[in-house]
Amino acid sequence: MIIETDRSGGVKELEELLERVSSRPGVEGLLVLACGENGFTPEDLNPLLWRQNLPLAGGIFPAILRGAEKLERGTIVAGLGAPLRTLVVPGLSDPDIDFTRHLEEALEIEGPSPPGLDAPTVLVLLDGLARRIEPFVEALYGLLGIGRTYLGGGAGTLAMDRSPMIICNQGLLADAALVGFLDVPSSLGVSHGWNPVAGPFRVTSSRGTTVETLDWKPAFQVYRQVLERLGVHSIDPEDFFAASRSYPFGIARVGAERVVRDPYQLHPDGSLTCVGAVRQGSFVHILHGDRHSLVSAAAEARRISQRFQPGPGGTRLFFDCISRVLFLKECYAEELSAVHDPLQPLVGACSIGEIANNGHSYLEFYNMTSVVADLAADLAEVQPIPDRQEHEP
């Protein structure tokens, strides 16, 4: 993978990166990770994206990662030295879309293993605040199945608005998902480090991403009582996320680690909106963590990924929830150091929700979780490069 970085966040600089990376020998696809602070708009970006001849996958995130560095302004362009096929799914919040049928038609599936779609790695980038992420993820996994690595994350910014965030050959899109089939073996580690401090509570009423009642009481009433018992006595309704990012929900899974849900919005009726759906009838705990547990979890995700290392060389992809950054603050450098290997290039994003499986278990949309993937060396990494090379050391 050929990796180049612009730290200014400019459109012209992005154009130069795209030209430079796409012209290098062996590059067959482009991964673009951009910061929300860049202020990219469809009017600025679309003419540039429409001109790209190579398949392109990317998104806008609160922050992006290059090596041991977190950038809050700028853009990373990575050249993929293996075939990349992309598929864009619009209307990720549309209640009338049958995602299974849409994907079947888009992929022209005629059997369990359609030609060209058996890539070992599936990159999924999507609008992190879309209201029907889980039905889309379930449909995707139902059609493509096990035996491959899925990874990715939710695009968006800390403004939590619904602006266009998905970068692809069609332009800068809102409320969409992009699926990239990458013909490179990969390995995956997933861990979060949040531990239960109260519960379980039954979700007695919910609507998609909004939890209305827990144990037949307004969700915020239950949530506030727990936090007050734990010593958190000041919860500002106008800045609910300041407290909630330290106390997420954890959805119970049989025989597996809890799936974290990040409540970020409090409504006047006492309901709580999360990043990702919480199904009625499920059971949730309230979780908490500390610096040690979160950093240790990121290191564990790296360790698991390395245990299934696909081969020497290659690139590490890291999708890490932006809520972990906000929780750890100046200590986030420790989490990034726990994942970064100075001898291996790393690119990634601080995302709004994470997509992952491990090649065998069920595909999930996570929150507040570290997802580490090691990609095998691809063709672009071994091709001679006529001009200066900007690999990480």
Largest sheet: 6 strands, mixed
Q: Could you say which structural class the secondary elements and strand pairing correspond to?
A: alpha+beta
Number of helices: 10
Domain unit count: 2
Name the poorly predicted regions: 110-116, 384-393
The share of residues in helices is 10-25%
Number of strands: 25
Alpha carbon gyration radius: 20 Å
Report how far the terminal alpha carbons are from each other.
13 Å
- Mean pLDDT figure: 90
Identify the overall geometry. globular
- Beta strand %: 35-45%
- Biggest sheet, spatial arrangement of strands: 1-6-2-3-10-11
Organism: Alkalispirochaeta americana
InterPro entries: FIST_C (IPR019494), FIST_domain_N (IPR013702)
Domain FIST: 28-218
Protein name: FIST N domain-containing protein
Topology:
Layout: E1 2-6, H1 11-22, E2 29-35, H2 42-50, E3 56-61, E4 63-66, E5 69-71, E6 75-80, E7 84-89, H3 99-107, E8 121-127, H4 133-144, E9 149-155, E10 166-168, E11 171-173, E12 177-182, E13 186-191, E14 195-207, E15 210-214, E16 217-218, H5 219-229, H6 240-244, E17 249-253, E18 256-266, E19 272-275, E20 283-288, H7 291-307, E21 315-321, H8 322-328, H9 332-339, E22 346-351, E23 354-356, E24 364-366, E25 370-375, H10 379-382
Helix pairs in contact: 3-4, 7-9
Domain FIST C-domain: 219-358
Domain FIST: 28-218
Protein name: FIST N domain-containing protein
